[in-house]
Design a protein that fits this description.
Strand content: 35-45%
CATH class: Alpha Beta
Radius of gyration: 15 Å
CATH topology: Nucleoside Triphosphate Pyrophosphohydrolase
Structural class: alpha+beta
Oligomer: single chain
CATH superfamily: Nucleoside Triphosphate Pyrophosphohydrolase
C-alpha cells in the first residue's frame, strides 16, 4: 500500500475502550479522552514502542492518558485508517478500570465518564463510535 511518498510503514497503535460501573448508580460508564492537539474526543490509545507487545502497549497508553489502571477483557475490532498520510492500525480491547485518577497532561487535558449513548454522541470519529457497540456486545449488554 503506497501513499505516494515512498513511506509504506504502517503506524501501529493500541488502546482500550475503558469502562466502569458508575460509583453513583452502578450503570455502565465509558471513558473518553480529549486531546487538545487535535481538539477531538476518542478512546485512550497511542503508538506502540518498538517491539512492545500490543496488549501491554494498550494498557500503558490507558494509564498514561487517563491515570487509571485496568483489567483487559475481550479483544475488540481493529481500526485501520490514514493518519498524516500514513496507514495506521489500532488494536483495541475492552478494559475495566480498577483504580487510579486523572491528572491533566499535555496529551490529554480532560476525560469524561459517559453512558454508552452519550459516548456515541461525544466521540469525534465514527470508527470510535462502532467500538462502543463492540464493547456492549462483549459485555453481553447489546
Amino acid at each position: 500500500m503506497s501513499n505516494g511518498n515512498g513511506n509504506n510503514d504502517v503506524v501501529r497503535a493500541a488502546g482500550c475502550v475503558l469502562w466502569r460501573r458508575s460509583p453513583c448508580d452502578g450503570t455502565l460508564e465509558i471513558c473518553v479522552v480529549h486531546r487538545p492537539k487535535y481538539d477531538d474526543w476518542s478512546h485512550p490509545k497511542g503508538k506502540l514502542k518498538r517491539g512492545e507487545d500490543t496488549l501491554a502497549g494498550a494498557l500503558r497508553e490507558v494509564e498514561e492518558e487517563t491515570g487509571f489502571r485496568c483489567v483487559p477483557g475481550a479483544r475488540l475490532p481493529t481500526t485501520n485508517y490514514i493518519a498524516n498520510g500514513r496507514p495506521k492500525t489500532v488494536d483495541y480491547w475492552a478494559a475495566e478500570a480498577t483504580d487510579g485518577g486523572f491528572t491533566p497532561n499535555s496529551e490529554v487535558d480532560r476525560i469524561l465518564w459517559l453512558s454508552p449513548a452519550a459516548t456515541r454522541r461525544r466521540l469525534t470519529q465514527s470508527r470510535d463510535k462502532a467500538l462502543v457497540e463492540a464493547l456492549l456486545s462483549a459485555l453481553h449488554l447489546a
